[in-house]
Amino acid sequence: MTVHFKQDEPDNSNRLDGMKQGVLGEPLPRIEGLAKVTGTAPYAAEYPIENCAEGVLVTSTITRGKVTSIDRRSVLSMPGVIAVVDDEKMCTRAAQGTANEAPTQGPKQVCYWGQPIALVVAETFEQARDAAKHLKVEYREEDGAPLDPNAVEPEGQEDETVHQGDLAHAMAEAAHNVDVTYTTKGHASAAMEPHAAIAQWDGDKLTVHASLQMLNYNITELAEALDMEEENIRLVSRFVGGGFGSKLGISEEVVAAALAAKQIGRPVRVVQSRQQVFQTVMRRSETTQRLRLAADSDGKLTGFGHEALVSNLPGESFAEPVLQSSHFLYGGENRELMLKVARIHRMTAGSVRAPGEAVGMPTLEGAMDVLAEKVGIDPVELRLRNIPEQDPEEDLPFSSHKLADCLKQGAEAFGWDNGPRKPRRRREGEWWIGTGMASAARVHNIAEAKARVTLKADGTALVETDMTDIGTGTYTILAQIAGEMLGLDPKQVLVELGDTRHPRGPGSGGSWGAASIGSAVYVACKVIREELAKKVGISEEVLELSEGKTATGESLTDLLEGNDLAREGHYEPGDIEDDYTASGFGAFFAEVRVNHYTGETRVDRMLGAFGFGRVLNAKTARSQCIGGITWSIGVALTEALEFDPRDGHLVNCDLAEYHVPVHRDVPDIEAVLVEERDGAASPIQAKGIGELGMCGGAAAIANAIYNACGARLYDYPMTPDRVLAAMPD
Amino acid sequence: MADTITVNGTAHPVPDDPRVSLLDFLRQHIGLTGTKKGCDHGQCGACTVIVNGIRINSCLTLAAMHDGDSVTTIEGLGTPDEPSALQRAFLEHDGFQCGYCTPGQICSATAMLEELAANWPSDASESLEESIAISGEEIRERMSGNLCRCGAYANIVAAIEEVAAGGRS
Amino acid sequence: MRPFQYTRAPSLTEASHLTAGEDTLAIAGGTNLLDLMKLQVETPGQLADINRLGFADIENTDDGGLRLGALATNTETAVHPRVRADYPVLSRAILAGATQQLRNKATNGGNLCQRTRCFYFTNIDQPCNKRKPGSGCGAIDGVAKLHAILGTSDQCIATYPGDMAVALSALGAEARISGDKGERNVPVRDFHCLPGDTPWIENVLEPGEVITGIALPAPVGGTQIYRKVRERSSYAFALVSVAAIIELTDGKFSRADLAFGGLAHKPWHDPRVGKCLLGQPPSDALFDKAADILLEDARGFGENDFKIPLARRTLHSVLAQATEGAA
Predict the structure, then answer these.
(1) Which of C313, C314, C316, C321 to mutate: most A Cβ within 10 Å?
(2) Do B115 and B72 reside in the same domain of the chain?
């Protein structure tokens, strides 16, 4: 039985606070944690499937053109080689997040260097890997593919464009103004588990173990790619070794494995090499951004401008949504926002953790630091003065707004010195030391979600959904929500995720997972509580459940009388989505040291304070926050995709030369979780936290670099060469 | 008699194809998938195992080069029923998120504590000659061969510090 | 990785004999070779495993120096009590490179022979004169941030990526090489080659020759510093590195052995740089003069232009640190 709840109004009943088990929000260790720390949790490529052949993708060595011939004989005589697959249904790009349709297919048409064009299948991985390098491919290359985003006429994105008032006039009249242009380099998700799939057919039924974030969308994407019915497909992603956007849509190996398994009549495993993951999945677009801020003598914004240029392949719908939080974070009645996309033939651009704010916030918050200096006020104070009463562009209230609390609590916890700020005031040996801060904002997303909760006759519970846990803590928070509602120790709640046989959730992405699927579990549990209350003869509102019993001592097992009680919760966001501007907010504080001679920057300590609605598990929520802050360090200092100027190929396509932060780059990090209940965000009053921690943090570091050594940089990442170039003598 | 590699106390024959890496041998040939393949080029540390007491990247060595050697993998350090001190500490401190780098982090940390006990210096050591004090900076430098993209580093260091100080034993 | 025959070399003589063949490579730690074989940058038909041939000891020499076995691992070398006490620049250089896992496997001999990390060398679908003579250099006019500013040619601008050999150059160490024609010693300063018109020739090893050891001279004392500038705080190749052995007598430089990493196709040792310091008291002007000499012929390729000022400043930092309190 399914119970549907469409939310049109905020839910400020705080029902979860009235429950008696007392486990929600508690910092419980992850329920799947023992499996992970002992190496017994199975990831996509690790299922022991008998008679499984091994496939390795072959990728193009031209930028744009056609594959004119593939000489199968060049590899079919090699030891162990079973087949060469170059089916027209093969995908040449990964699907964008929530695409819900097949990604671009047809491997004969090449649109970027490194694009998958075929799959070689052999008995062993070693044989397939070697044969893939030997496959003889001929091309007809089309010269002149545009590669430089600054050298083409970009397309405008109308729905992102805002013209309000007269910004040019406001800038001219302003007591203080800032007009600066930033650049950011591309980023890679670089999830630790490479993209992998094992496909097996049983007649016309297909099962794929894959590493995917959003099975509900992925099954549709795969069905369309293979031209088959969803009913005949089962996708399994019980453990996903990191996603960060790169596994939102199906990627090339999933379709290739399915086609190959069909062709050879055996299961086939395809694991992308690390270099292939870098080159074939998704890049975050590089950006060029112009920020204009006009302020009165008190620092109050009168004008706000943010224009961004991003890039993608022709035909891709995704444009890095750089301006997402700029639309509402600060006031300023004269506004100009504009997003443009350059069509170039580098690999596909798509979602990488916190698409938009990950690069839009570090530039905006850098510009705010410049403004604070011009106005001559503390940068925390500047932010506090510019928090708008309501959405500055649309006539909408905020669902809940914790920026001021985050700024104040964060400053307090960090020990922020709000005295006069001048660069180059502190030096230890070769190192300049300084501090910086920035605001955080990340739009709140929420989606339709379904989950089945079964209260078992033995007094335990089972939660089932196709929702994934990509490391965010979904397994654990769902056990906590169900445990809280049903009066059970979370250890008594079995959570089964990542299987399309279960009711469909929205998947993990855009930080919407916890609030969406958590609400579906909440809806299901609420109905189960109503059934139990009926059995007791009281109303659900006064039913108290804890430790498997009612307040009057009746046990759940007695009430169930030997029967399971199962309900499917179906949550759907209604008018709340349109009636409010909803966002997570926060503040970052950093202390860095910059070497006077070499321009090397090290982060000595960092703190973030975040308001993201109800905390479902203080341990996993904190981990999400510090994970985001760790990414902020990468954005600020080390991460940059480099593309060859002549053929557009991604040059630094491995983990040695694409510099994700290592242990030593990351100091002790503190996270302050600011108390909040946002009833207009979701019935469980929670918002997302997976991305907020990196939405602006890089600017706290950049601003600290300036405060430390006087080098004001407008280009991320702030590598030693760039810091040195900006360093005053 | 065929050449063998001893893994977690059990001897296994060396594979016929010399191209098989120690990592693929563990994962594909003897079914020990706890050791992870993250990059296959020694750049991420997810494949870290302990060979004859020393931690190495199992992806950058051939199984054939290890006949007679004794290999310890994550499965050999502890089990869900009997986890090691480090495994328990990682769980308590949330020293992981997606879990994919975790076996490598734990194998690495296990051997790293031995290296510290043997007073091996690191790039972070103030002095090469005096006895080395365990510090956050020492642990971070010594663990820098193990990438964690989820960003659990701060928690991993906290877990290791606790065990280094004698906790969770 | 192409199929190959794996052979455990039973003796040094046999190892020499095997590797004298065109298609056979010796494998020790394998951390660089297997990396490149997976990418098919290296495609030997046979691997001769030399790991169990002995020469892994670290021993005192008659002249008070130290002989490092070629098969001793980088870790064994860096943590050896005598290396730590008498050759700290070497310990420091090794510890600044790679990761503990890699250093635990990589050998001293292999470290000397490691190949460049140039993006175009490791991608077999891109041009590279080093990997495929005559195919062109992808890095010139390409992405060249990590590339060389000294000793380049129009054929190749790759750098030697290691740290250990930079310290060995500063120390004046010698490589002991064994081949079918017998044994010879080659100063590490002369071991690596500049690219010239033959960028595929990276060192002086002849076919069939195997490095068996590295001889360190008797300890020279002084202040020993290895300074590595990199984009991450650990586990990244050097943008610039400096190995320095500095001694002051009566407030003037009496020893200044300097070698540089990240600047060239080989550890860069220009004797004029140290020589200009000798007999002079430390000063900013003197440090600048040393940098002028070092960088006299430096040439950037756009993205790596920054290495010229960075090398200057890093040298300045190292000399200032080494002479702290004396200036």
Answers:
(1) C313
(2) no
Q: Check CB contact under 8 Å for B44 and A192.
A: yes
B128 contacts C5? CB cut-off 8 A: no
Cα–Cα distance, A540 to A13 (Å, whole number): 14
CB contact under 8 A, B98 and A242: yes
Co-location of A660 and A619 in the same domain: yes
Q: What residue spans define the domains of chain C?
A: 5-49, 223-322
Q: Which of residues 188-247 of C touch A (CB under 8 A)?
A: 229-237, 239-240
pLDDT band at C325, cuts 50/70/90?
confident
Annotate A412-457 with DSSP letters as a single string. HHHT---S---SS--EETTEEEEEEEEEEEEE-----EEEEEEE-T
Domain spanning C5-49, CATH architecture: 2-Layer Sandwich (3.30)
Q: What is the pLDDT of residues C101-119, one digit of tens each?
A: 999 999 999 999 999 999 9
Determine the pLDDT at residue A46: 98
Q: How many CB atoms lie within 10 A of CB B67?
A: 14
Cβ atoms of B57 and B40 within 8 Å: the answer is no
List, for residues A107-159, the tens digit of each pLDDT value.
Answer: 999 999 999 999 999 999 999 999 999 999 999 999 999 999 999 999 999 88
pLDDT tens for A309-351 read: 999 999 999 999 999 999 999 999 999 999 999 999 999 999 9
pLDDT at B168 over 70: no
What is the model's pLDDT at position B1? 47
pLDDT at C270: 98
What is residue A358's predicted lDDT score, i.e. its pLDDT?
A: 98
- Where is the domain boundary, A283, A305, A337? A283
% of chain C beyond a pLDDT of 90:
98
> So what's the pLDDT on residue B98?
98
Q: Are residues B39 and B62 in the same domain?
A: yes
What domain range includes position B20? 4-77
Q: How far is CA B91 from CA A163, A469, A620, B95, C160, in A?
A: 51, 16, 11, 6, 42
Q: Does A413 touch chain C (CB under 8 A)?
A: no
Residues 140-159 of C with CB under 8 A from A: 141-143, 145-146
The answer to whether the beta carbons of residues A556 and A459 sit under 8 Å apart is yes
How confident is the prediction for chain A on average, in pLDDT?
98
- What is the 3-class SS of A176-239, one letter each residue? EEEEEEEEECEEECCCCCCCEEEEEEECCEEEEEECCCCHHHHHHHHHHHHCCCHHHEEEECCC
Find the residue in B nearest to A671 (Cα).
B154
Please check whether residue C3 touches A, CB under 8 A: yes
CATH class of C223-322: alpha beta
Dist CA A284 CA A353 (whole Å): 9
B128–C234 CB contact, under 8 Å: no
On chain A, the residues whose CB falls within 8 A of the CB of C141 are 645-646
What is the number of CB-based contacts under 8 A between chain B and chain C? 94
Starting from the edge strand earliest in sequence, which strands make up the sheet with C210-216, in order?
A: C58-60, C66-69, C210-216, C174-179, C182-187
User: Which residues of A are the active-site residues?
Assistant: 691
Mark which of B77, B106, B129 sits at the end of a domain.
B77
CATH number for position A16: 3.30.365.10
All partners of chain B with 3 or more CB pairs under 8 angstroms? A, C
Measured over the CA atoms of residue B124, residue B158, residue B83 and residue A495, the dihedral's sign is negative
Residue B41 at interface with chain C, using a CB cutoff of 8 Å:
yes
Q: What is the pLDDT of residues C259-305, one digit of tens each?
A: 999 999 999 999 999 999 999 999 999 999 999 999 999 999 999 99
